[in-house]
């Protein structure tokens, strides 16, 4: 009886993956991004259980909307048409049950019973059905050859109720997919060999909406209203098995929840409401049939009166009078409901419209010259689903369109749609269970589990302690304090200075670091980077740059080949051609290069620099090495020759200089391995993580350290402890998000990109397209590694560098294609999540490639003028 | 028909408040803190709807547990007793429905049908009922005088099924509260004049558990198992109207969810599961009656196979054979379920036990000398509910006990239990709708709403821009950059230095600040504070202290009087006695003091200091004033004379030195007003907020600034923009939490402490107790203001200061009383939330007062020895 059969589990896990992948459908097609109009209200009708009267509510709304006195004619004397669109994407029990037919026939009959009757053009269509449903539907079908999938039923029925030609109201009812058995859609679909992918449902729904609510001149004077009625309860599976609340999530239409007025109905209604909220839906009203149990009182109390509750009169058991009386007595609540929905719709639109102006009035965006951001360029993000933003646009008409978040919400983003809802549930749970609890001297599950996962994962083989903080900058400041303490103890500095006051501070500690590095924006983190656009007096009046900053060799792809680029200090004659070009990216990382002449050149340069620095005075010490392994992010997505970084690590290890890896950007699969240290083939003494650690959801950082580093803070006095902490250190929500994400990303069952044996992500960026792009004349270099695809545009003078606006027109075009990118001056990049499918990445590259061609041509034209 | 009646709304809001307050019941009584044993498993039985067979599941578990072969005798030949405790806290439809009677009679009958019969002692009690239920129950009651409330029914029935005397199993069934009508408990309670407060239900439940599962020697050999069966669905209202999932939350017993195997049941089961998770419950198994719809398949897929699903055979419609056959055929699933519950219980206990050791192995706590934190002093926090931790303890026996979080989770915590669940829902929604989306050049609702609320609230009258960051430290670093830029532009420094390289940096900017101030742990924030325990080379090798740091006058209560304490620089003869003592705390803040001699003394001192600093060189400028208004937190909860801070602000304003208020600790009602600036009666140019801003849930910070400050960053180049930002800047989750909390705290409908007219919190700390405490000889000073109650213990030498362990024994005792505090050396404090009731605060003071007495006596004894 017990369902613990592992084979069952496995098969369903596979099924689950199938469904998950299909969430990304919009980006997977080469068609334009998903989009839907905002010119007319579209509402989902949800039920907190099955058989609570969703269709009665749809019918009542249709009746309210269509069967009221004709709208006043406007000044130009053209009549405003009214159109009610009823969509039932998924219908089971067909044809005996057909909700679209019910709405169609009920409205026709209600219209004709008025005296005089209301003018109404009504139609009902059923587009596709399973074979069994089609057969039951009768008629003659050529179904001999047809065994699997859905049959094109294309059934249509029409009725006209006419009083006069003017002011005709129109009712369009459509069932998109129908199955015969009156069971849950996933079961009917399976039993009737008529499984439909989520993508198909969503595309057909999008198509119906666009056809019926389309932006056309003649529709300017159309008043339309659309409801999309779900099947069963909010979390009933759709035809593929995906829960309907997940299936329809990319649209995130606002909803009406049909609740339950019976005994036990308060609970079911509240729970259904919470399931919808957890997925980011807005519920505009709750409506239910009155059973005399005053369920509305606790419901209103629960909803804090923020969501109106509408009561419907009891539905008669005796249906003989065709519910005409019932609809009559329900006209008041349905009119109220319609009013609520219309005003919520216009309120939403008003807010969306005013947002850009308000944003430019009250925000102070970081890294943004406000003078360069006019109101009309502000992006209004209505929501996100997995890797995609839903963006509000107001070009001619209002609509919502999808854009792939290729800036990975500024380098943090990781979840696909499935992980997002998992995280949402976990966030609710963490807040409900812990809220926030203080960390020092305490332990609680999410913090402990997170620390354990970090030490077993990115810290494996070297780290034994986890120090939590809030973001990359703070993690770096902590790392520096750790390294300096360790260095001081090792070098006997500690004893001299422990009690010293400022005047006695003879010793000065500095870092060894690379030019182009970036470790965060707080002063301590800034001090560890070389002078740059970010460090001038204008930005950082207190910056001095406390380090020895070396110019590193870099690698990149150009004209389809991976090349080495050497800094000025390295005389080319010493380097063989063999060392300058790589046959593949893998070759760059190969350990065998440690035996090369180049390695010896690197090492001796580093040795020379360290011995020369800072000159004769003995009071200045290099107390730490700090590097971003493999990729320098903010510096311009530069890939540093890993051989050089290995040489740095080895030389510092030899001198007992603590080694800090800044993996804030590179950690957690950003570069295709759980840590960039793994790619480099070295271990640090201290490493910093943030960004993707929480799946890209909320701020949390960790500084990992070896037991030796930890021990340099042990003593009898609290004053010897590391006195750096933030109030939310190891906050339960962040740790919970990290626990889920760290596990999710590395598990081949949840992340199909993980190649389990190699502990690497499969290649996400199409090799051929990458080479093609790297060969465009407008492209100076390409770096494709893990989830990162970066390229530097060929640019000179003020077109190059961080402040450049050179890429702007290119990125504008890509946004129209549904790709949201943000430049680093003339460097642009696509970043996907660790779970993003290679197919989606390929689509991004195709779009980028096409727009680069245009860009190139435009630049060439400009040049020739 | 529509329920928009505002009077109804109002009355229910009041009702709601009543319920909310009662959540805090455990702290409101003088009795010991809530606690329950962990020596035996206790499970909640939840239903995803009513009538799904919760009681069948309870009965099945009882049968599995009691009616299996007697346990093997142990080595000492004593028999292990088995006891199954079935508790039904809330029963409606009584006496015709009585689930405890059902379990009682069914078990007795099952036991006797075995051959030979199982030995069983069974009892069933009904403790309290409404009068109507009592009357229906029959018998002779003295009910004439009894009209309202609950009647002490104290009904008890017993049965014995005996085979032999050894190995007797015991079944205890108890109904705690019963009502007659078969409707939702809140409705029955209301209709039968038998409303029961949440606190009463919880206390009686605690009592029953403690009686039956008590830690006694003889019970050492008892095997017990307890289920607490809820009424209706998970979110069905309890007798007071509080949803049951909220009512029982302080216990957070793990649960079994009885799901729904019918059509539509997948959705209801998933939604109920999500409602429980949202409240921080752990659901260990889902069990439901099989209706042949294979609902288990989508459920297992949804649960990702992490929660086992158990199927029960269909319950026969024909009950004539008394379900004996059904229980027979269900023994396998019930045994499995029991196994799952027992192993989850021991797994939970194992994890709780190992947590302190693991924590000391893998954590590196901030501000913690690990050598001083042995494993046994680590606090294991199992959860929090509102202001209280649920702490796991293993003294002799394992149990969970409640501790009031008086360190306010390190100065951030704000929500009571009601706000916590509201925030949990909002966090789920924000994650589901937005996850995280990048901020620069974008707008999304939570960020916009949060910025608007900040500008209308704490920024009202001065601020026009919101700059988001992650925590107090980063907010301060941003504020400094803002102030210095403004100062530079105003003073023509900008033009000289814009393009300057390091060598050219002639100009040095410093801050004017107060000794004892603390602005955060990153280097930039540290540089703005005076040298302290936190700034030595040992901690901050890069610290130099870039400021003019003044020693401020402070105020505090001592011997029941508010006194002024002057720093050395101020000659006492200049100050009248009148100025040294205040008749009340309000007097300290009075604006009339601006006319006093003292104000002139303060002003001229400040003027003198500014004119003398830093001597002859003209390159060093005071570019900003930075203060924590009213209270210096980390510096030791020092209350600075507001008159002195006003003088500072006025003098700097006169000199066009930008003024920064660090309201990270003081903001959002911490001190009884939404901002401390309001108490001070001054406005800044820039102010920083964090901690309580999100209700104390997750990290988020904001730096607010005037339009003039903002304008000093406007120009043609991006390089003139403020280039400081963190990846999660303005993250949707943080902004959503802030939006909810900012509104909640200031609204008198949700925060009963708010005095609407005055925009102040009512006095939370009992005046008499405060005076008494301030008069203890062991107490040097007291500061009670808003949500803060701080006191400094009289201490000398190494007993004083940040590293002191002087308060340790005192705080240990208070933890035993259920009060969790953390010292700042010899300064200890209680911090409550903005919504905490004065009664709870009074209880805290009573406990503190009593323990101070003990502490005092112990110190006196030590001294006399």
TrEMBL record, chains A, B:
<dbReference type="GO" id="GO:0004015">
    <property type="term" value="F:adenosylmethionine-8-amino-7-oxononanoate transaminase activity"/>
</dbReference>
<protein>
    <recommendedName>
        <fullName>Dethiobiotin synthase</fullName>
    </recommendedName>
</protein>
<dbReference type="GO" id="GO:0009102">
    <property type="term" value="P:biotin biosynthetic process"/>
</dbReference>
<keyword id="KW-0032">Aminotransferase</keyword>
<dbReference type="InterPro" id="IPR005814">
    <property type="entry name" value="Aminotrans_3"/>
</dbReference>
<dbReference type="Pfam" id="PF13500">
    <property type="entry name" value="AAA_26"/>
</dbReference>
<dbReference type="Pfam" id="PF00202">
    <property type="entry name" value="Aminotran_3"/>
</dbReference>
<dbReference type="GO" id="GO:0004141">
    <property type="term" value="F:dethiobiotin synthase activity"/>
</dbReference>
<dbReference type="InterPro" id="IPR015421">
    <property type="entry name" value="PyrdxlP-dep_Trfase_major"/>
</dbReference>
<dbReference type="InterPro" id="IPR049704">
    <property type="entry name" value="Aminotrans_3_PPA_site"/>
</dbReference>
<dbReference type="GO" id="GO:0030170">
    <property type="term" value="F:pyridoxal phosphate binding"/>
</dbReference>
<dbReference type="GO" id="GO:0005739">
    <property type="term" value="C:mitochondrion"/>
</dbReference>
<keyword id="KW-0663">Pyridoxal phosphate</keyword>
<keyword id="KW-0808">Transferase</keyword>
<dbReference type="InterPro" id="IPR015424">
    <property type="entry name" value="PyrdxlP-dep_Trfase"/>
</dbReference>
<dbReference type="InterPro" id="IPR015422">
    <property type="entry name" value="PyrdxlP-dep_Trfase_small"/>
</dbReference>
<dbReference type="InterPro" id="IPR027417">
    <property type="entry name" value="P-loop_NTPase"/>
</dbReference>
């Amino acid at each position: 009886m017990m369902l613990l059969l592992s084979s069952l589990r496995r098969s369903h896990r596979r099924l689950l993956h199938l469904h998950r992948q299909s969430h990304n459908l919009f980006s997977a097609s080469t068609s334009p991004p998903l989009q839907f109009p905002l010119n007319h209200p579209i509402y989902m009708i949800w039920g907190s259980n099955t058989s609570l009267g969703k269709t009665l509510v749809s019918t009542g709304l249709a009746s309210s909307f269509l069967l009221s006195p004709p709208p006043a004619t406007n000044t130009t004397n053209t009549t405003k048409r009214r159109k009610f669109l009823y969509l039932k994407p998924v219908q089971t029990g067909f044809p005996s049950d057909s909700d679209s037919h019910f709405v169609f026939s009920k409205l026709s009959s209600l219209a004709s019973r008025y005296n005089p009757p209301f003018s109404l053009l009504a139609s009902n269509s059923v587009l596709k059905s399973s074979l069994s449903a089609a057969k039951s539907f009768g008629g003659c079908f050529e179904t001999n050859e047809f065994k699997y999938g859905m049959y094109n039923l294309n059934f249509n029925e029409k009725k006209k109720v006419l009083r006069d030609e003017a002011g005709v109201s129109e009712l369009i009812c459509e069932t998109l997919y129908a199955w015969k058995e009156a069971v849950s859609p996933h079961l009917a679909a399976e039993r009737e060999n008529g499984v439909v992918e989520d993508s198909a449902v969503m595309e057909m729904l999008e198509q119906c909406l666009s056809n019926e609510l389309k932006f056309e001149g003649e529709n300017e004077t159309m008043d339309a209203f659309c409801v999309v009625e779900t099947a069963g309860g909010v979390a009933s599976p759709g035809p593929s098995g995906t829960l309907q609340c997940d299936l329809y999530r990319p649209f995130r239409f606002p909803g009406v929840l049909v609740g339950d007025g019976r005994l036990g109905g308060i609970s079911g209604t509240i729970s259904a409401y919470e399931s919808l909220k957890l997925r980011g839906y807005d519920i505009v009203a709750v409506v239910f049939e009155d059973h005399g149990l005053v369920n509305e009182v606790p419901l209103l109390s629960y909803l804090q009166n923020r969501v109106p509750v509408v009561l419907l009169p009891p539905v008669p058991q005796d249906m003989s009078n065709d519910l005409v009386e019932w609809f009559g007595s329900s006209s008041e609540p349905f009119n109220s409901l319609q009013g609520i929905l219309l005003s919520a719709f216009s309120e939403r639109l008003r807010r969306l419209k005013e947002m850009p102006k308000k944003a430019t009035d009250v925000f102070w965006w970081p890294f943004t010259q406000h003078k360069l951001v006019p109101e009309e360029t502000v992006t209004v993000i209505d929501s996100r689903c997995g890797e995609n933003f839903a963006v509000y646009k107001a070009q001619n008409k209002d609509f919502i369109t999808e854009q792939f978040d290729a800036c990975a919400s500024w380098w943090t983003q990781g979840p696909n749609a499935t992980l997002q809802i998992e995280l949402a549930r976990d966030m609710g749970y963490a807040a409900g269970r812990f809220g926030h609890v203080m960390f020092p001297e305490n332990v609680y599950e999410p913090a402990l589990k997170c620390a354990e996962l970090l030490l077993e994962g990115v810290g494996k083989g070297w780290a034994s302690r986890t120090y939590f903080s809030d973001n990359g900058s703070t993690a770096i400041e902590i790392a520096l304090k750790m390294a300096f303490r360790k260095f001081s103890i090792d070098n006997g500095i500690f004893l001299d200075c422990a009690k010293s006051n400022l005047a006695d501070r003879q010793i000065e500690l500095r870092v060894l670091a690379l030019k182009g590095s970036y470790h965060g924006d707080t002063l301590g983190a800034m001090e560890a980077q070389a002078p740059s656009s970010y460090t001038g007096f204008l930005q950082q009046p207190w910056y001095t740059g406390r380090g020895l900053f070396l110019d590193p060799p870099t690698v990149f792809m150009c004209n389809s080949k991976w090349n080495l680029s050497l800094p000025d200090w390295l005389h080319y004659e010493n380097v063989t051609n063999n060392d300058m070009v790589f046959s593949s990216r893998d070759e760059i990382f190969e350990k065998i290069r440690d035996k090369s002449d180049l390695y010896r050149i690197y090492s001796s340069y580093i040795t020379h620099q360290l011995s020369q620095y800072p000159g004769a005075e003995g009071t200045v010490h290099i107390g730490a090495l700090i590097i971003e392994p493999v990729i320098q992010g903010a510096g311009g997505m530069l890939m540093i020759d890993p051989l050089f970084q290995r040489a740095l690590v080895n030389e510092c290890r030899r001198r007992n200089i603590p080694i800090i890896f800044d993996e804030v950007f590179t950690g957690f699969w950003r570069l295709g391995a759980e840590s960039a240290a793994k790619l480099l083939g070295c271990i640090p003494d201290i490493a910093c993580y943030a960004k993707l650690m929480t799946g890209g959801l909320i701020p949390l950082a960790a500084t990992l350290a070896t037991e030796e580093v930890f021990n340099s803070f042990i003593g009898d006095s609290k004053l010897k402890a590391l006195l750096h902490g933030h109030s939310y250190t190891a906050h339960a929500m962040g740790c919970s998000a990290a626990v889920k994400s760290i596990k999710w990303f590395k598990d081949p069952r949840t992340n199909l990109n993980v190649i389990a044996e190699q502990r690497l992500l499969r290649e996400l960026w199409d090799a051929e397209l990458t080479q093609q792009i790297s060969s465009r004349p407008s492209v100076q270099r390409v770096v494709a590694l893990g989830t990162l695809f970066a390229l530097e545009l060929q640019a000179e003078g003020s077109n190059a560098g961080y402040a450049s606006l050179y890429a702007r027109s290119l990125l504008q075009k890509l946004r129209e294609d549904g790709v949201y990118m943000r430049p680093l001056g003339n460097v642009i990049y696509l970043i996907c999540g660790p779970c993003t499918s290679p197919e989606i990445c390929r689509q991004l590259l195709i779009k980028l490639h096409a727009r680069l061609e245009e860009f190139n041509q435009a630049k060439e034209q400009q040049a020739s003028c």
